[in-house]
Amino acid sequence: MSVWTVPIGTTEVTQQYVRDNMPAETTEVVIPEGVKSIGDSAFRDCKSLESVKIPNSVESIGGRAFLDCVSLASIVIPEGVKSIGDFTFKRCTSLKSVVIPQGVESVGVYAYSYCTSLKSVVIPQGVKSIDDFAFNGCIILKSIVIPEGIESIGEGAFYDCTSLESVVIAEGVKSIGDFAFFRCSSLASIVIHEGVDSIGIHAFSECPSLKSIVIPEGVKSIGVDAFAYCANLKSIVIPESVEDIGEDIFRGCTSLGSIVIPEGVKSIGQGIFRGCTALNLIVLPETLYGSAWYGISVNQTVIKYSDFNDWKHKNGLEGKSYSDQAILFLYQLQNIETFTPAWSEVLKQCPEVGMYDLLKFVDKKTMCLPEFFRSNGGCNVEEQMANSEKRNHCFEVSIDGNDCPGFADALLQNLSLPDGASFFCTAKDKHFCSHQSGESLDDTLRP
Fold it and tell me: How far is CA 245 from CA 190, 212, 233, 250, 307, in A?
């Protein structure tokens, strides 16, 4: 190992000073107390440099200071440094971890981009901005917490972070920039707290592992292609505050089954539902209802937001702690004859939906009704269930599994029985099976 120590008394380490004094094969640099700044491009392209010890006296690290130091694996940035400049650690391909100290207010443009060995980043409170493409191309970075105090996530900040699995964005962030999480192919979970007012174009597009997202109240605009080609996105909540939705934002979201666009939305871009092959139910504001350019096919059901709210009110669903997805599922169950997704799959996303709801909202599909609920008109579900329990503590269901796939499974998975009660199910695609209260459902649901 070749160690080079900067002489005591030096106050600034500049690019020229390093070129004139540091041996070419240096692997470790020791910077003594008293040095206040590391200048722009100071150690740029030092291919052999593996570690740098920076004293607490350093207040600033210039742009491109360690650009293309491909062997740099270890560096500790002391407290007192106020900013990490543009391109400072770009393409430091051996850098494995970064701790940004308290006191840093900004992480510069391309500061850590293409640090392809970077596994972890700690961003402290006090940082106000993550600038454009700051962590672009950090392909093994798995998680990131954006702390309180950060106001903006810049354009392409985590672009192509293909191993990034989870992101938490704390309160205080006001904007998520264009392409901020573009092509984060492993991103399965993201939490956005209130405070964000805009989501940029392509912000989460081509994130095929993303399954659900809740956009917080306060967001006013969602940019073009914001969630395009998120092939596994099954649910998304759009708050009342949103006013503008850009073109193609859900294009190619082939798992999205239903969506509510709230009444306050004033404009929707062209083709937002293009390629959404699983989308059955779309709720639109009355002012935007009926437009043909959204990419809606003839097989998709579109209803007015006002009618949807009226239906919720009539069915006692207002004020319930049901997710939008659960309410949409119950609407489909009651009102749409052809229900494409397997019910059991939908219900995995809606644990609040119980057997009572299933029996109540399936009322119009007589082929799926339990025998003791069948009637020419409506039936009092509560009364029927109560009478049945008093009679024999037994629920008996006859289902044509081919006509109504998934319903038997759904009943079993969501069944809650009183002590001593049992459930019986007969279906063309299943053997006779029963479930006693307290038994594992896996034991009773036999192919």
Answer: 20, 18, 17, 10, 21
Q: Kind of pairing, strands 430-436 and 422-427?
A: antiparallel
Q: Judging by beta carbons within 10 Å of its beta carbon (0-12, 13-18, 19+), is residue 178 exposed, middle or buried?
A: buried
- Residue range 374-411, pLDDT digits in tens: 433 344 545 555 554 444 444 444 444 444 445 555 55
CA distance 257 to 279: 4
pLDDT digits (tens, 9 = 90+) for 223-272: 999 999 999 998 888 888 999 999 999 999 999 888 889 888 998 988 99
Per the structure block, which two tokens stand in for 281? Answer: 């139910």
Rounded Cα distance, 184 and 153, in Å:
15
Q: Do residues 89 and 73 make contact, with C-beta atoms less than 8 angstroms apart?
A: no
Question: What are the residues whose beta carbons fall under 8 Å from the beta carbon of 355, sequence distance 6 or more?
Answer: 411, 414, 415, 416
Q: Which residue in the block uniquely carries the two structure tokens 């059955």?
A: 280
- Among 314, 224, 306, 234, residue whose Cα is nearest residue 270: 224
pLDDT digits (tens, 9 = 90+) for 10-68: 999 999 999 999 998 999 999 999 999 999 999 999 999 999 999 999 999 999 999 99
CA-CA distance, 301 to 273, in Å (whole number)? 13
* Stated length of the chain: 447
Exposure string (b/e) for 217-252, b if CB count within 10 Å is 16 or more? Answer: ebbebbbbbbbbbbeebbbbbbeebbeebbbbbbbb
* Nearby residues of 159 by Cβ (< 8 Å), 6 or more positions away: 133, 136, 137, 179, 180, 181, 182, 183
84 pairs with which residues across the strands?
A: 61, 107
DSSP letter string, 106-162 = EE-TTTTTT-TT--EEE--TT--EE-TTTTTT-TT--EEEE-TT--EE-TTTTTT-T
* Residue 225: both structure tokens together: 């292609």
- Assess contact for 77 and 53: CB atoms under 8 A: no
CA within 13 Å, CB half, 434: 9
The predicted-structure confidence for 221-234, as pLDDT tens digits, reads as follows 999 999 999 999 98
More confident residue, 159 or 288: 159
In angstroms, rounded to a whole number, what is the distance separating the alpha carbons of residues 78 and 382? 67
Degrees to nearest 5, angle at CA 281 with 277 and 287: 115
65 CB-near residues (< 8 Å, 6+ apart): 38, 39, 40, 41, 42, 43, 44, 85, 88
Residue 134 has φ and ψ, to the nearest 5°, of -60, -40
